[in-house]
Specification:
The chain is α+β, with helices and mostly antiparallel strands and 611 residues long. Helices cover 30% and strands 19% of the residues.
Amino acid sequence: MKKLLVVLLLVFSIFTFAAVKNPDTIVDVTIGEPDTLDPHQAYDTASGEVIFNVYDNLIEYKGSSLSEFLPRLAEKWEIDGNTVKFKIRKGVKFHSGNELTPYDVEYTFKRALIGNPGGGPIWMLYEVFFGDYFSLKSAVKGLTGHSWSELVNPETKEPVNDEAKQILLDFYDKYIDSKVTVDGDWVVFHLAAPKVYFLNIIAQGSSWGAILDSKAAMGLGLWDGKKDGWWKFHDWKKEDSPLYAKEIGSGPYELVEWDRTQQKVTLKAFEGYWRGPAKIKNVVIWGVDEWSTRKAMLEKGEADIAAVPAQYLSQIKGNPDLEIIEGLPTVSVTTLNFNWQVKADSPYIGSGKLDGQGVPTTFFADKNVRLAFIYSFDYKKMIDEVLDGYGELVPTALPKGFLGYDENLPKPKFDLAEATKYFKRAYRGQLWRKGFKMTILYNTGNAARQKSAELLADSLKKINPKFQAEVRGVQWPTFLDARKNGKMPLYILGWLADYPDPNNFIYTFYDSKGDYGSYYGEKYAEFASKPQAFFGGKSLDEMIEEAASLTDPKVREEIYIKVQEFVIREGLGVPLYQPVGVRVHRKWLKGWYPNSIRPGDDYYHYYKSDK
């Protein structure tokens, strides 16, 4: 899922424990704030945590399991090949007072397919509904023979002519309207092929599976549910969505306010919730980026939950009022990623030239540069000293425990001599002679990412004093926007699984259409789609997509291992660590349970007690 605002389970939740203070309220001081509250735009854990608590999905995970499910808005479901049916629960009220109907479910998923914002999570729905296409634009191109720009005027968002309009209307009838249908109390999903992870994709915790109040949505100016004009609702900027800072859910909590100036989200319990009102009546999720401030609030009892980076964990160990749970499984990884074609107007590449005052826009399209950077990072120091041992090294962006993970694959290593060798090879020696300048961003308050960037910058300077990397902190939404707009030459970011299948990591990071791969630039897209002798004439993209389409685990595993061998050889980014899970909370907190794929806390199950 999900770009991780705070490295999963390496940022710890703390609950103060003395006499129980404010038993009806939880104050959760964390790092940063949501990127957006629109479920079809949100693709980060800060946004996902809020959405998790104000919306309901059709099904939910059973406790800590990632393979067993319980009913939520669906009372039951049936799977028959490509067809998945859900019987929709009666008597559920949205926060507006409107009653949930099967149409709300149908509307939700069609709105997702139509909206399909660039860089968002809806590619997963396209994968299961369309098979060969991972976005609306690619589906339109492949199924009609016309590109989106040939059909729709980008300025007016209207068809360019009557013929184009008819093509779009026909596309809706044939390819959008047919994917999700209502049959009495049932909603029927028509998949392109059986997918073992379809239920995972839409389960609670997946923002893109959150069910919208269709009447409220239309009232706010979202898609009106009609085929005529559906194209006007495609690929809105996040700030243009009426759901950017609003919610129209049926979940256990309602949004009271999102105060952007204070990075503070306030929720209140929904008294009409179909499972009964939450015990905790008020929740404040507050982005307090300075650890010292969070710690002070915690110690004074002004906060119940605080984000604690791993390097500060020792400061709270030994407190008898805290429960510390270690060794929890994780389904996340933190990686160093390279942009092969930075936008020319980026403020983070200096002069934009190989002149010692910047880097070219295609700096990381050079394999020697990528491998040099990979050898320049001190992985052991990061894990042992910064994370205090709460991390482990893995060969690629595929976490340990997933199909295709292979301990025999070489893991990244810190080797300044090797780094020097590759830097001297890059640009025929000009890079070594002239040096470079660039800026590495991290999201303010994320001490682990800050230290990662500083470790890299320090190593680069040791290799060659002319290698200058400025490390700069920015707010989380600013960081995500810089990534989305192709402005960062490289970045450190975490990824929490959307669903527990290797495709969610291999496709995400290495396919040119994946959530990370699509931001590596056009040069990377050209590379990933180019036939490779290493793959017997197939491209990297083709190999990844073939593995996703197969059902035989052994064959899939062989392909994933082959793909990873290529990734390592070519230096297509590098994992810095897979976090080792630790949970810390005050002993007065009751109701917490682990689930490694959940984007944050499930406040509905919480209550406070000193017993």
